[in-house]
Write a structure and sequence with these properties.
The protein folds into two domains: about 30-210, no CATH class; about 210-325, no CATH class. Helices cover about 25% and strands about 40% of the residues. It has helices spanning about 5-30, 40-50, 55-60, 75-80, 210-235; strands spanning about 60-65, 85-90, 95, 100-110, 110-120, 130-135, 135-140, 140-145, 150-155, 155-160, 165-170, 175-180, 185-195, 205, 210, 250-255, 260-265, 270-275, 275-280, 280-295, 300-320, 320-325. Strand 18 (about 270-275) and strand 19 form a beta hairpin. The chain is rod-shaped.
């Protein structure tokens, strides 16, 4: 063979070897990126961050249990995923049967967590590439309760709470926070982290309390009731008015001199009881001033007495409306 032919053959062989090497590199790149089992996991996490629940549900091949769907899309879903930081997708680990487990590690509130996803590979396409998909599963459910309220917020999204409870289908991983913060009722936030379908999240329980705003509103109504009662007693010159307070005496009180006033207004305390909000017994003090005549001696003296009193009241709150109904015993 001539030297030119050998040289040409060598160049062709080198080109073929380079082409094969390039193909191997390309196959490895594709298998480690677009065709890797980690790729569906990355797409799923991205869908969670974007609040794209339909896409996330399709990727996860998950069925939705009977529950409230408020956390499966939009702001609530984005908030759950936003609390994940330092997320890393790990190497696929063989589980047999053409299945692999892909782990992700991340931090929530400074604590490292791990979630594992099981994926199924298809038969190789074009001899080299596999399609990877999540093994079908069912979404977990998060239970939430709230004391004496039919509404709350979950991850900042207003949600209905019939009879103070509800169950929400949720994606994982994520963190979920229930809260209640209204004009008259509030509860400290309650959080839980969901790492996987087989790691059930602790229920979120909101311990509702009356706000200072409600206590102020009820206090104002108590004061209005007592002041009105005292004014009416003065106008009618009554020792025993239809009020929580009264004065009993054997002396004759000079008409036109009776003057009632409230010296100590009750301190309002509101607590949940039996599915309602109840006002604790209202204790206070009232002063009566008058001129009185001793029926035996005829002596005229000044009456100045302070009487303790106590009464109960029914509280009804409807939206922004606060109604207080005093309960007076005969």
């Amino acid at each position: 063979m001539s030297q030119a032919v050998v040289k040409t053959a060598a160049l062709w062989l080198l080109g073929l070897m380079l082409a094969v090497a390039g193909a191997v590199v390309a196959i490895n790149v594709v298998n480690n990126s677009l065709a890797s089992p980690q790729q569906p996991v990355r797409e799923y996490l991205d869908a969670l961050r974007q609040g794209e629940g339909a896409k996330a549900l399709g990727l996860l091949h998950a069925s939705v249990p009977k529950s409230n769907a408020a956390m499966l899309d939009g702001a609530g879903l984005k908030a759950a995923a936003a609390r994940l930081s330092d997320v890393s997708v790990g190497r696929a680990e063989d589980r047999g049967g053409n299945r692999v487990m892909v782990p992700i590690d991340y931090s929530i509130d400074g604590s490292r967590q791990r979630t594992e996803f099981l994926l199924q590979g298809s038969d190789p396409q074009w001899l080299f590439f596999r399609d990877w998909a999540f093994v079908p599963t069912t979404l977990p459910v998060l239970d939430v309760t709230v004391v004496n309220s039919n509404h709350a917020a979950l991850n900042g999204v207003p949600v209905n709470m019939p009879n103070g409870r509800n169950s929400f289908a949720v994606f994982y991983p994520g963190q979920y926070e229930a809260s209640l913060n209204s004009q008259y009722f509030a509860a400290p936030p309650s959080r839980t982290t969901l790492t996987g379908k087989d790691a059930p999240a602790a229920p979120l329980n909101l311990l509702t309390r009356a706000t200072d705003g409600l206590k102020s509103a009820v206090s104002a109504k108590v004061k209005e009731f007592l002041d009105t009662c005292a004014d009416q007693a003065d106008k009618k010159q009554q020792l025993q008015p239809d009020c929580p307070f009264y004065h009993a005496t054997n002396n004759r009180v000079v008409d036109g001199t009776i003057d009632w006033s409230i010296t100590d207004y009750p301190v309002v305390s509101i607590e949940p009881f039996g599915g309602r909000w109840v006002v604790a017994p209202l204790d206070g003090k009232a002063r009566i001033k008058a001129r009185q005549v001793d029926l035996f001696t005829g002596a005229v003296t000044e009456l100045n007495a302070v009487h303790d009193f106590s009464f109960t009241a029914r509280l009804d709150v409807d939206g922004d409306s606060v109604k207080l109904t005093p309960q007076l015993t005969g």
